[in-house]
């Protein structure tokens, strides 16, 4: 597992105890690993990891759909 | 609060000629008219509110009851009380936006003929509340903390279930806020403007909560009357339980901790949320809401 995604994967597994592993391209929203109620905490986690606040009025939800996309848009560099 | 001896809602819809509901609506509308005030002329907005005072009661702060509270200097306590109060009013602004959208979407639509007259009082008053909370934040803190909630694409629910959840969410939000309003309005350590906005908000919300309890009960009875199955009840119960938790968690804002000079806001939030003293505090904030949802049968006591 990539070091940069580990905190995100840990967070997702903690909230989805029936899930064993999360493939990089699994749609986290469609498979309900994240839903609207859990999204606020998820955003706060991401903000903590990247060290800046996200402007939620400008986000594209698709950027949050998979671990690959999260890594590309937020977690790498 | 919701009256403990509310008569059982009849297996009637909100559109039926429900005499008891109509009587309540008439009484609340009359009271709203009698209590009406112009928010734009009611408040004395001083140029500043001193930053070396408390803006929120220490007992309502998210560190209260933990060992971390005792480690705060007086200046840190004042800063935390200032930024947590701004967070509280910011949450009000965003919560009111959502409820205005949902109630406006339903006023004078089929199924809401009976409460629509009261909806006009409700919408007008909520608009006033949003204005004075936003004014407070912008005038004295220079900002409103941004809304961190996002509505993700999800399968649409059955309209009756959606109606029930909309008004249940509104009621939960109002009851949580009211817990804070009552204490803030009564706290003589706080600035008169702080006490004034909380007092007026509580005055209006008392009517909204009485209305919300009755409407939520009616909408729940409507669902039961339609034959809500155990799986759907379980799903609703789980959703509302998580909604209560998420609502409480929004009071723990890493940005407010940062503004108050407390480091590692996200880690602090997680540490506090897991703290037994805070969990006891949450139960206290939520006791009217959970009591009501238990009483009408949405929750069961073993949840």
From TrEMBL, chain B:
Membrane-crossing residues? none
InterPro entries according to UniProt: AurF/CmlI, Ferritin-like_SF, RNR-like
Name of protein: Diiron oxygenase
* Originating species: Streptomyces goshikiensis
């Amino acid at each position: 597992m990539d070091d940069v995604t580990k905190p995100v994967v840990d967070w997702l597994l903690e909230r989805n105890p029936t899930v064993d592993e999360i493939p990089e391209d699994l749609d986290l929203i469609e498979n309900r690993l994240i839903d609207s109620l859990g999204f606020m905490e998820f955003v706060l986690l991401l903000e903590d990891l990247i060290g800046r606040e996200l402007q939620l009025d400008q986000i594209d939800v698709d950027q949050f759909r998979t671990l690959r996309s999260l890594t590309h848009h937020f977690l790498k560099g | 609060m919701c009256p403990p001896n509310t008569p059982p809602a009849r297996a009637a819809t909100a559109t039926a000629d429900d005499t008891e509901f109509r009587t309540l609506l008439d009484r609340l509308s009359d009271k709203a008219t009698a209590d009406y005030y112009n928010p734009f002329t009611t408040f004395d907005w001083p140029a500043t509110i001193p930053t070396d005072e408390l803006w929120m009661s220490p007992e309502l702060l998210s560190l209260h009851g933990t060992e971390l509270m005792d480690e705060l200097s007086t200046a840190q306590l004042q800063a935390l009380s200032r930024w947590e109060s701004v967070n509280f009013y910011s949450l009000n602004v965003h919560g009111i936006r959502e409820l205005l959208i949902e109630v406006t979407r339903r006023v004078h639509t089929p199924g809401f003929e009976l409460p629509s007259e009261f909806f006009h009082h409700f919408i007008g008053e909520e608009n006033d509340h949003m204005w004075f909370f936003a004014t407070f934040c912008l005038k004295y803190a220079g900002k409103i903390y941004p809304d961190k909630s996002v509505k993700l694409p999800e399968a649409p629910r059955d309209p009756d279930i959606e109606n029930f959840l909309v008004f249940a969410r509104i009621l939960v939000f109002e009851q949580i806020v009211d817990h804070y309003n009552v204490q803030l309005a009564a706290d003589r350590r706080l600035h008169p403007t702080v006490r004034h906005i909380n007092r007026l908000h509580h005055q209006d919300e008392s009517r909204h909560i009485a209305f919300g309890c009755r409407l939520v009960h009616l909408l729940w009875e409507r669902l039961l009357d339609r034959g809500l199955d155990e799986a759907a009840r379980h799903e609703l119960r789980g959703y509302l339980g998580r909604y209560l938790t998420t609502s409480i968690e929004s009071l723990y804002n890493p940005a407010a901790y940062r503004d108050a000079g407390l480091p590692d806001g996200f880690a602090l939030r997680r540490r506090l949320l897991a703290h037994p003293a805070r969990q006891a505090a949450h139960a206290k904030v939520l006791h009217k809401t959970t009591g009501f949802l238990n009483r009408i049968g949405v929750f069961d006591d073993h949840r």
